[in-house]
Amino acid sequence: MKIYATVSVFKNKNYIIFHKVNIDNRWITQNSTDIHPIENEEYGLGLSVLSALDKSGKGILSYSNENYWETLGFKTFGSFSKNHDLVNILKFNNFYQITRWKKDRGGYIPDSNIESIELPLNATAKEIEDGIKKLLEVRLEETEICSLETLNDSRVEYKVLDFSNYIDKGDAHTDAYQVYVHEEYENNYIGFMIDEGYENQSNTSVKKLWGKLFRDSLSEKIKKIWTRWYGALKSYEYKEIKNKAYYVQIIGKTNKIERHSYLFKDGENFLELTFQIDLVDTPLDLQEMIRKDFIELAESVKIYH
Fold first, then answer.
1. I want to staple 119 with a disulfide (CB 3.0 to 4.6 A). Which of 123, 155, 165, 295 is the partner?
2. Where are the alpha helices (DSSP H) in the chain?
3. Are the C-beta atoms of residues 273 and 262 closer than 8 Å to each other?
């Protein structure tokens, strides 16, 4: 079905209303149409939403503001979304649809467990406002688990980071499935990497035949690669792990960074979860907090083949 207009209503201490304009088949958020206190004047919220829907349908531009959360005092969209509930209102050919969205991975996704409300196009401001408030009153179960699929068709589940402190970078335009960085000190990051090729020097039969020799060569190869990538290592530790989802843990330090990697079985290859702590520009107490957060994420990982 064709969408003729769309408006978002965010709720925290106030209702914040944004309309979107369709430009080249992409809905672009415009600046805040209106802000209402929670205890707003009678049906003022509904009237503002109807006005915003009219602007959206007519394509009225009022300064595109895709980083609107920054003007509202939030450094990232993840921080903003953590503090605001969301309802979207869509206008179709012959009805309005009001849908509740839930927080997910530093953003929002439609909540399929909450039935949308449909209203006729002649709905009053009161009916629009009542529908919005009804959906916003529903308490949601917050998403606590993130997931991704690997190239080997494994499903990876892991604990959600606090998105008021970290930015979801997606693949960050790198050879990664998923990367998160600290919102203020971006040289601290964690990511699920596509096979770095550490093990490609030997096939499976060689690994089985040579056992410890292969493990030692893998450790040395990773050490050499890390030295080439990050500089001289002050310390390096390669540990084989039993009774964990990961089977190898690697920790290395230079004068500037601390690096941790965890290797998980992923078909014939492996999945690497790696994180970096900046030892130069990040305050010591924040280093400890970030390290704790990243280790908790690593320990939470489960892989289903």
1. 123
2. 44-58, 68-71, 77-82, 125-136, 204-210, 212-230, 284-300
3. yes
Domain boundary among 91, 113, 136: 136
Q: How do residues 220-259 score in pLDDT, each as one tens digit?
A: 889 999 999 999 999 999 999 988 999 999 999 999 999 9
Helices (H) and strands (E) in the chain — how many of each? 7, 18
Tell whether 117 and 155 lie within a shared domain: no
Would the pTM of this model clear 0.90, i.e. be above it? no
CA–CA gap between residue 176 and residue 148 (Å, rounded): 11
Find the CATH number of the domain harbouring 108. 3.40.1590.10
Q: How far apart are CA 194 and CA 270, in angstroms?
A: 8
Contact at 8 Å (CB) between 209 and 202? no
Q: What is the DSSP string of 121-176?
A: TT--HHHHHHHHHHHHTS--PPP-EEEEE-TTS-EEEEEPP-TTTEEE-TTTTSSE
Q: Residue 80: is it exposed, middle or buried by C-beta count within 10 angstroms (0-12/13-18/19+)?
A: buried
Of 111, 136, 161, the position where a domain reaches its end is 136
Verify that 85 and 165 share a domain, yes or no.
no
Name the residue range of residue 62's domain. 5-136
Q: What is the pLDDT of residues 23-34, one digit of tens each?
A: 888 888 876 655
